[in-house]
Design goal:
By secondary structure, this protein is mainly alpha-helical. The chain has a single domain, classed as Cytochrome Bc1 Complex, Chain D, domain 2, CATH 1.10.760.10. 33% of the residues lie in helices and 6% in strands. The protein has a two-stranded antiparallel ribbon with strand order 1-2. The chain is globular.
Length: 125
């Protein structure tokens, strides 16, 4: 009997089980992308302790640099817009291009990732 085995994180899978296991993985959700890519610096709860960045509760429709008590980097007080999907997409692509002097280091080149994160933020209160 010829059976092939594959070691996956300490487990053995037979070839048929591997074939079933190795199917395409589901695409990451906006929530998981936010948690993994934004959650280190930002929270969604307005009463949570600030991290490196301000909380993002109620982000859409508010002016950049407007979370009371958070010390923003230079440039935010000159921003003459409110956050919407188009501005968020531009910002996540290159924060310093939209808001010169921004300290945000994150940049996301993939439109589908930006779109998923923005959709998730739009779904939040």
């Amino acid at each position: 009997m010829n059976v092939r085995y594959l070691v996956v994180v300490g487990s053995l899978l037979t070839a048929p089980a591997y074939a079933q296991f190795s199917g395409s993985l589901p695409a990451p959700t906006g929530a998981s992308l936010f948690r993994n890519q934004c959650g280190t610096c930002h929270v969604l709860e307005p009463d949570a302790a600030a991290r490196q960045g301000p909380h993002l509760a109620g982000l859409l429709g508010r002016k950049p640099g407007s979370v009371a008590g958070f010390k923003y980097s230079a440039g935010y007080e000159q921003a003459e817009f409110v956050w919407d999907a188009a501005h968020l997409d531009e910002y996540l692509t290159n924060p310093q291009a939209l808001i010169p002097g921004s300290n945000m280091a994150y940049r996301q080149a993939k439109p589908e990732v930006r779109s998923a994160i923005i959709a998730y933020l739009e779904s939040q209160p």
